[in-house]
Amino acid sequence: MNAALSSPHVLYEHRQTGWVMLAIGCIPALCVGAIWLLSPVSDQPLLPPLLPGLCVITAVVLLGFPSLSVMVTRDYLIARFGIGLFRKTLALQDIVGVEVARTRWYEGWGIHWTRRGMLYNVAGFDAVRIALASDKKVMIGSDDAPCLASAIRRAIEARRVRAA
Fold first, then answer.
1. What digits encode the pLDDT tens for the residues 139-154?
2. Residue 3 placed within a domain
3. What is the pLDDT of residue 43?
4. Could you tell me which residues are beta bridge partners of residue 86?
5. Distance CA 103, CA 109 (A)
6. Of 25, 49, 125, 152, which one's alpha carbon is 20 to 30 angstroms from that of 92?
7. Which residues is 95 bridged to in the sheet?
């Protein structure tokens, strides 16, 4: 990890667990278990080839998406899913706007593009919408959205004071 990102100057840190994502991650394992338990051995020709694929899907979901950790440091906003397989890092100097927002039910959870910008969300509908200097928009889901937005604004202001 970049030394700048592991700075001890953490201004805000919060983790939200996505219980629905965890439940969804268990579905492939439950399907394999049900097929294995309910089928006679002679009727299980697909089980051996399917098992590795379902195990990989289950592992990616359960390790990659069980939670969303958001950290604001002196210089960065970092959103990290699960153990860190998927993350988004934004330099505070690139952020030009921050507002609390609500995602719509059809925008869902996970990491994907929406009409209102790239979405990083693990549960719920509360988010912080971030406008970047490049005119791109990013939405970070959080069950602590007002505090996250406030922490980002304070960190940006502190950067301005340090630069002056």
1. 999 999 999 999 999 9
2. no
3. 62
4. 81
5. 9
6. 125
7. 132
